[in-house]
Structure formats: structure tokens, C-alpha cells
What we know:
By secondary structure, this protein is of the alpha+beta class. The chain contains 7 helices and 8 strands; from the N terminus they run H-H-E-E-E-E-H-E-H-H-E-E-H-H-E. A hairpin with a 7-residue loop joins strand 6 and strand 7. Helix 1 crosses helix 2. The mean pLDDT is 87.
Amino acid sequence: MANIFDIDYEKxxxxxxxxxxxxxxxxxxxxxxxxxxxxxxxxxxxxxxxGSAYADWSSGSTYAKYDRVIYKDNSVYESKTSSNTxxxxxxxxxxxTYWRKVNNSFIGYDERISWNGQIIVFENALNRYFRTxxxxxxxxxxxxxxxxxxxIYVKLSVxxxxxxxxxxxxxxxxxxxxxxxxxxxxxxxxxxx
Length: 193
């Protein structure tokens, strides 16, 4: 069954128009009207479902118009200009001049929907989102003492790369973890190792 992720507006127009009016001129006119809708659908829903595999943003790279990157907030950004060099996708006063945020996460809905609070799956989700690998993996330990349901352990070097100070770093981890810790009452700790 087709869903909103799979909509092809050209096929929809052709299916909805009476066969007597399916001449090339009429179809070309209608396609030109719905082209912006198809672009927006592709922009917002296409990679939202499947995820993105773009390169990380680099200050030394030059980006053409419509090039996409993954920035340090794990969001996907699209260059709005040609010869886009050393312009931050987010956080700078002029970011919106050069970049458009396409998705809040490079990880697609198809993958995220399978995540839940089970430790192994949750650890994998954290490591995937923060792009860590052995020996820098994030891990979780259940502990029922002192009202803390579990502790998320983050390698110090990974933790330090997440922000300017400890509050910002922990906020980034909690911002992601809170989406998947339903039922814990939010009682978990974040610490480094």
C-alpha cells in the first residue's frame, strides 16, 4: 500500500485526469504546476524515511548549490549557494544565508522506528547517532540504586567533542536519549569513562 513517503505527484496527476485530457500539452502544464510539490516531498520525506549517507561538513571543502552534508548536530543541511566555503551550516549569524536544514537527523525513520529501550538496541542507537566505534563505544549499565534506572557511559574524548561545556555535552546526549527512554521516568545518569 502506498503511503505519503512514496507519493509520485506526476503519477497521481496522470491517474486523476480524465483519459480524454491526457494529451502531452495538458500533462506538461499540470506537471509544471505540481513540480514544486514533488521537490518538497523529495526534500522533506524522501530521506526522512530512508536516512542520509552524506559526508560530514568540513571547513576546508567547497560546496556547490544543493550539495548536502551532515553537521555536528547530526542534522542534514543543503547548500543554498555555489562556491560555499567555510560557512557554518548552523550556529552562525549568517548560516541561513548559505545553508538550509533538510532533516533533523541523518538516520532515517525506517531505522529509528525499530529503536526502543532495550539495552542492546538502545546502545546501538546511541553509538549510531553519535557515530562512535570500538574502543570509543557508548554503553549502558542498569542500576536500580538511588532512584537511577540506568547509566549511559560515554568515552571522555567522545563526550568532550559534543559541546563547549559539560552541560551542553550532556544536553546533546539527553536530547537524543529522551526520545527512546519512555517508561523510565527520565531517571538515568550520563557519565564518562
